[in-house]
Amino acid sequence: MKTRPAGIGNVNADWMGSLPSKLSAMPLKHLAVPGSHDSFTYWVDVHAPVGPDQKVYVKYLATMFSVLAKKVMVKWSMTQNLTFMEQLDAGIRYFDLRVSSKPGETGNEIYFIHGLFGHKVRDGLLEINSFLNKHRKEVVFLDFNHYYAMEAEHHVYLLSMLQEVFGGKLCSNCSVENITLDYLWEKKYQVIVFYHHPSGQAIPVMWPGNKIPAPWANTTEPNKLIQFLETTLKERAKQGSFHVSQAILTPRVNTVAKGLVWGLRNYLVERNLPTIMSWVAAQRPGVDGVNIITSDFVELTDFANIVIKLNNLLLSEKDRNPR
């Protein structure tokens, strides 16, 4: 059995349901919500072929130096250590999801992917649904934003799966301004799915990708990342969408080459986390503030707790200490 990392418990398993009524009545786009980047990468299959999301030269190297190349890829493909359930228990409510069929495999099975194939999507969705069944006031954002090697029949399969697994928990696409926790609780909605593909447009419970922009800094430098996050927050649309601040650094080819044996966590993430987390802790939610914030390796700091506590800034002293 996988051991739960030190310091991770279920202290935030019901944080949405525990918010003061003033916050549950606010549009969810004005609350601070912790999320994870490449949320499913806590396990990847080193025995499967390299994913179709990879460049040709990576596929070639993996073919020529199979075992060695994949060991390196694992270190740079994994951006999370916690399972879906552990992330949910820790307070994560936004999931960044990339999916693919497995070329050469019969049937329409869909897998999570980030360089290497991960678990079947169905297994991940069932795990999330199991959590939601036990925590009826918690709400998750599922952002399906990248699709690889998927034909029309694969999309039909995935869209049917989402509706089958979550059923009446799925929130219908509507005005973002109407989405408050009070509204969702009243309707018994717990899942908002964003489907960044035309095949989802005709389905009322699939939200379009333009309602959850997630600008990407694409940099290895923390100062450039913070400048980008500040700029994109100022440019955030006033109406019609949620907003994702991706507080992540992205390795380049030379980054991987220099830190080949260390991997993403040891070479790039850990050394820069203090700078990034200082920025996160200094934010404020609300009309012109942060909404969803994502991170790699969410267990390395008190990330989820720090983001959740930002919501206290929306309360007056009277709200915080009611008689």
UniProtKB/TrEMBL annotation:
<dbReference type="GO" id="GO:0008081">
    <property type="term" value="F:phosphoric diester hydrolase activity"/>
</dbReference>
<dbReference type="Pfam" id="PF00388">
    <property type="entry name" value="PI-PLC-X"/>
</dbReference>
<keyword id="KW-0378">Hydrolase</keyword>
<keyword id="KW-0807">Transducer</keyword>
<dbReference type="InterPro" id="IPR051057">
    <property type="entry name" value="PI-PLC_domain"/>
</dbReference>
<dbReference type="GO" id="GO:0007165">
    <property type="term" value="P:signal transduction"/>
</dbReference>
<dbReference type="InterPro" id="IPR000909">
    <property type="entry name" value="PLipase_C_PInositol-sp_X_dom"/>
</dbReference>
<protein>
    <submittedName>
        <fullName>PI-PLC X domain-containing protein 2-like</fullName>
    </submittedName>
</protein>
<dbReference type="GO" id="GO:0016042">
    <property type="term" value="P:lipid catabolic process"/>
</dbReference>
<dbReference type="InterPro" id="IPR042158">
    <property type="entry name" value="PLCXD1/2/3"/>
</dbReference>
<keyword id="KW-0442">Lipid degradation</keyword>
<keyword id="KW-0443">Lipid metabolism</keyword>
<feature type="domain" description="Phosphatidylinositol-specific phospholipase C X">
    <location>
        <begin position="27"/>
        <end position="196"/>
    </location>
</feature>
<dbReference type="InterPro" id="IPR017946">
    <property type="entry name" value="PLC-like_Pdiesterase_TIM-brl"/>
</dbReference>
